[in-house]
Amino acid sequence: MLRLLTAIDFAANKHRQQRRKDPEGTPYINHPIGVARILYEEGGVDDTAALMAAVLHDTVEDTDTTFDELTQAFGDEVSRIVAECTDDKTLPKADRKRLQIENAPHKSDKAKLVKLADKIYNLRDLQRTTPKGWTPERVAEYFVWAKRVTDGCRGVNARLESILDRIYAESIKA
Ligand SMILES: Nc1nc2c(ncn2[C@@H]2O[C@H](COP(=O)(O)OP(=O)(O)O)[C@@H](OP(=O)(O)OP(=O)(O)O)[C@H]2O)c(=O)[nH]1
Ligand SMILES: [Mn+2]
User: Fold this and answer.
1) Average pLDDT over residues 33-54
2) What pLDDT is recorded for position 174?
3) How far, in Å, CA of 132 to CA of 12, rounded?
4) What ipTM was reported for this prediction?
5) Model pTM?
6) Is the pLDDT assigned to residue 1 strictly greater than 90?
7) Three-class SS of the chain
8) Nearest CA to ligand 1 atom 26
9) Any idea which ligand is nearest the CA of 23?
10) Which residues sit with their C-beta closer than 6 Å to ligand 1?
11) What pLDDT score does 159 carry?
């Protein structure tokens, strides 16, 4: 479990100059820490590798962190879970979004858990406030897209899945 503290410190350093897209400019690190909290507290997940991967899940996608660095610091399993949760930013956005839907069902159970908690955090954020520059249409499209991704991650945690069911019932208009 102390490895989890090391991961939190690592992620906090990597994300230290980043802010969320909300109007308040919340520190980015609130997101990965919150994703790990959702996994543990709301999903009942106490697997250390999954919780560490949750904390680290955006470090490669959004900072200069490499998978080699993660493997060195935290081992193969954590690095692989993060890899499964990392979009290829060299691809056009439409391809990245499509690939998340297509690849979701093929991910490991631990990667699916991180994906479910990541989407819960982001969807709650969208219910709370609108990111800078987002139109209502873009927000609505994110809910529909996120549902397609998380539908492919089902079967790993009934509690997280029912939280998502409620969020979609509240926010996706037929
Ligand atoms: N809802 C919300 N999202 C914010 C905010 N600030 C940053 N984000 C991040 O923005 C991403 C979603 O925005 P998009 O425009 O769809 O994706 P993009 O950053 O990949 O282009 C999420 O990345 P991600 O975690 O990698 O997840 P995802 O791309 O798999 O959804 C989310 O964490 C905020 O204030 N509210
Ligand atoms: Mn994320």
Assistant:
1) 98
2) 73
3) 23
4) 0.97
5) 0.98
6) no
7) CHHHHHHHHHHHHHCCCCECCCCCCCECCHHHHHHHHHHHHHCCCCCHHHHHHHHHCCHHHHCCCCHHHHHHHHCHHHHHHHHHCCCCCCCCHHHHHHHHHHHHHHCCHHHHHHHHHHHHHHHHHHHHCCCCCCCHHHHHHHHHHHHHHHHCCCCCCHHHHHHHHHHHHHHCCC
8) 58
9) 1
10) 20-22, 31, 58, 61, 93, 118, 122, 125-126, 131, 142
11) 98
Block residue for tokens 């503290």: 5
Q: Which of 22, 42, 47, 62 is catalytic?
A: 62
User: Residue 115 is which amino acid?
Assistant: K
| Ligand 1 centroid – CA 127 distance (Å) | 14
Confidence (pLDDT) at 173: 85
69 is a catalytic site residue: no
Site to probe by mutation for ligand 1, drawn from 102, 122, 130, 134 as the one with most ligand atoms within 8 Å of Cβ, is 122
- Integer Cα distance of 27 and 41 in angstroms: 22
pLDDT in tens, 99-134: 999 999 999 999 999 999 999 999 999 999 999 999
